[in-house]
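Most newcomers find our protein records easier to grasp once they have seen one. To make this concrete, we reproduce a full record directly below:

…
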Amino acid sequence: MSRKQIIIGIVANAGGVGKSTLAVHLAYELSRHKTTVALIDLDPQRALDVFCGLPPATPATSIVGALSKEFTGDWTLVPAWDLPNIEVCQGHPSMARLADDLVIRHRGEYALADRLKSHPLRHDVVILDCPATMGIICENAIAASTELLVPIQLEMKSISGVADLVEWAISITDDLKLDPSPQILGLVPSLYDSSRAIHRQYLQQLPEITEQLRIKLYPHIRDSSEFKNSSANGLPLQKYRPNHPACSDFKEIAKDIIKLSKG
């Protein structure tokens, strides 16, 4: 059965909310269902390199090369964890300078979308790990995406800003005249600690917020030191501690993405 390619932009307006954690573990969960995945690191902090245990790339062999004017269509993709169905287009710190160039470049907001259209990747799912800023790199991700995921930390800043982030994403789709426009697949509460009363309180408030925003609320991703331990070893938790309960936290999102890819 042929599949529709799904491009997932993971967006947030703050750092430390679990974007890269979500990207990496979602990719691994999808791969377990015979789904091919490309991870594209759009963040100059290049967290995916660490999570995937990869050495630093050069600008030419990173996403910076793919978005340069000299790009000829040869994507540089590196296998993650020696798995044939997960590949990474690595990030690079010079992505921050490239962002300045995209601001003045013709169709700069569509650079990534144009690349993926002119030189499509073979993968069933492409996951875009975005920087924690609502700038032109995130605009590129929105323009290229078919769906968006919004991880949110159970803290006042994240909770109060989620409506602004959703409204900003919608306004970008309008400004860029995207047709079809990417749909917000859902909100993902991350770093949830059940022992903290404030986390339990905010988690109880989220259904009302997501109902008002008319987007889906996914089950929370729990906080665990094992995520840090696994990333320090360059592995997803599913490989580092396959029996850890948090490994199941990504299943429902993966299930929805697979359903979308099958049409």
